[in-house]
């Protein structure tokens, strides 16, 4: 994927609405697949540290399975994605979380129109705010929090129908 296309995605994402029009969303773009791959073992280290501390058995098992998959050579964290885009902002701004998520969602929707595949990097996002080695690798400035990250690339498979969804939970008044 070209640098110009990544710039185009960020440019569109910056037009997302923000609280009080503060426009405090910061973007970190990992263009190099090797840079993306070097983040995975850090998330795995965090998962190994967290698994024994998590009281919920299902969640602890999930964390353990990530590490086991990694030990077998499988990247269940960033799935070999060639690019990663992270949004972050000053952690003490009340609307920062919503602003970042909305901006990243705009980017994600636009990426699909450009033929790109995306997937939110939830484990990386969770680890980014609490695991210092990952914070450093991500280059998060002091006082900033990661509010989301999306893996990007051209999809290997083309799907011809949308995934099934539950009926909407709507209250009509």
Would you kindly provide a written description of the structure presented here, covering whatever features stand out?
- Residues 2-154 form the Nitroreductase domain.
- This is Ferredoxin.
- Belongs to the nitroreductase family.
- Keywords: Oxidoreductase.
- A 4-stranded antiparallel beta sheet has the order 1-2-4-3, with helices on both faces.
- It has 173 residues and is α+β, with helices and mostly antiparallel strands.
- It is built from 7 helices and 4 strands, in the order αβαααβαβααβ.
- The relative contact order is 0.19.
- It has a single domain, classed as 3-Layer(aba) Sandwich (NADH Oxidase), CATH 3.40.109.
Short structural summary:
This protein has 173 residues and is an alpha+beta fold.
Q: Which secondary-structure class do the elements indicate?
A: alpha+beta
Which shape, going by the Cα principal axes? globular
Topology pattern, helix = H, strand = E: HEHHHEHEHHE
The radius of gyration is: 17 Å
What is the count of β-strands?
4
Helix content: 40-55%
Family: Belongs to the nitroreductase family.
Protein name: Ferredoxin
Organism: Desulfosporosinus metallidurans
Domain Nitroreductase: 2-154
How is the secondary structure organized here?
Layout: H1 3-13, E1 26-30, H2 33-37, H3 40-50, H4 57-71, E2 83-90, H5 96-113, E3 117-120, H6 122-128, H7 132-138, E4 144-153
Antiparallel strand pairs: 1-2, 2-4, 3-4
Helix pairs in contact: 1-5, 3-4, 3-6
Keywords: Oxidoreductase
Family: Belongs to the nitroreductase family.
Pfam families: Nitroreductase
